[in-house]
Specification:
Helix 4 packs parallel to helix 9. The chain has 9 helices and 11 strands. The longest helix is centred in the N-terminal third of the chain and has 21 residues. The protein is 39% helix and 20% strand. Bound molecules: 3-[2,3-bis(oxidanyl)phenyl]propanoic acid and fe (ii) ion (FE2). The site of fe (ii) ion has 7 residues, from loops.
Length: 313
Amino acid sequence: MTIKLKCLSHTPLRGLNDPAPEVIAEVDAVLARSRADVEAFDPELIVIFAPDHYNGLFYDLMPPFVIATAAESVGDYMTLPGPLSVARDLALDLARFILDRDVDIALSHRLQVDHGCTQTLEELTGSLTRYPVIPIIINSAAPPFAPYRRIRQLGEVVGRFIATLDKRVLVVGTGGLSHEPPVPLLEGASDAIGEFLICGRNPTPEARAARQERTIAAGKIYGTALSAQTPLNAEWDRAFIDLLLDGRLDAVDDFSIEEISKEAGRSTHEVRTWVAAFAALAAAQGGYRARRDYYRPINEWIAGYGVMSAEPR
Ligand SMILES: O=C(O)CCc1cccc(O)c1O
Ligand SMILES: [Fe+2]
């Protein structure tokens, strides 16, 4: 087995509510380098830990995590629609492996995924079908959440599975860092929003367009006094990146979900995907060497925007 890791923020506002041209150019350059790394590594499998934003998963049956043997992109915002090339049999093997090692995971034989999974896949590989992929969705938007230590444990078990494969495997985490887009909460929601959060699958094109316009409008005022959303927290982001650089993964066991929501925004919990990815890498081969490729808080994109790479030491 050979293993590499990439963790990236995502933002559906890329191309829809852009920052200054210099910032776009920086991000384009770091994404181009990341994609070239992936092309050179030529993975035989990508395991992607991703969140969902009420596109595939709803409160009618909300799993803490789910592994997919087949997945289709809903094509929200500017993302590609259509099927992902999921490694079906390997995903099933992984599901069995995880369950056998005392971590419960839900299984989907037909999962809808959104920009939280597909944007990064496209940025890193150019399409949704370039390499065989196993999507593992970690609930990061719909409380209550499993604690961070549980995410670390999930990642470790996935890493132990990867270690049994005779393949080049790319582990990906996507989301974060600090941010709080206007994603509704069930607690205190109106009947209409509550209904959407419980069973809002396959919205009309009009509903999808309205959601996109709401997000763009939120991006235009994010980080100003006009915004009701928790602002970016670069200090929190830098400390989290340092924790990963130093290999102090057990520190996440002390993470308080409530505190992170308050200090850095509710969607910061998408960093759960980074925790799982780094834990997988650490468990697959012992220690790792990590690199911070990029960080910048970008209000226009509602994103503490970071990119990290890592590989075994
Ligand atoms: O759920 C939605 O439609 C909005 C999602 C969203 C918005 C801004 C930055 C993000 O990272 C993000 O995921
Ligand atoms: Fe997101």
